[in-house]
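Thread: Newbie trying to understand structure tokens

Hi all, I'm a second-year student working on a class project, and my supervisor (Dr. K.) asked me to get a predicted structure for one chain before our next meeting. I've only ever worked with sequences, so writing a 3D structure as a token string is new to me. If someone could post the tokens and maybe explain what I'm looking at, I'd be very grateful. Here's the chain:
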Amino acid sequence: MSFDLSTFLPYQLAVVSSRVSKQFAERYRAEFGLTIPEWRVLAHLAQSDQVSVREVQARVDMDKSKISRAAARLEASGLIEKRANPEDRRLLDMRLTDAGRALFARIVPIANAYQAEILAQLSAEAPAFRTALLRLLDAK
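---
Reply by user tm_fold:
Sure, no problem. This is what the structure looks like when written as tokens:
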């Protein structure tokens, strides 16, 4: 049986994903001291008025405990606030504070610049790559 891990698409996607995430993390960690889970919580809260830990976990495909610890650190830093969900008291909804929104606004240009660098590496292949990536993300 012949198998070459280096050409196995799921392996390649996992490695690329990890590298891209870590390279971006180096940029916001250096300036803002955030971890990858903290960035992901902030980014999701910036997209929504309020989100539960469970919803963030489902969206980012990350362990619930990592999301919970990140949320606790962000809350302690005054970047997010947690409130009991009015419909289910067992759930906590999170939302950005004014300080969290201000911090996120400072990170957005860094994120956009990093994305532009990646798209520049792909050059003319970028649109086809994004289309294929979206197809994989939508597949269930």
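A couple of things are worth pointing out once you decode it. The beta strands are 51-52, 80-84, 92-96. Residues 98-122 form the longest helix (25 residues). Feel free to ask follow-ups in this thread.
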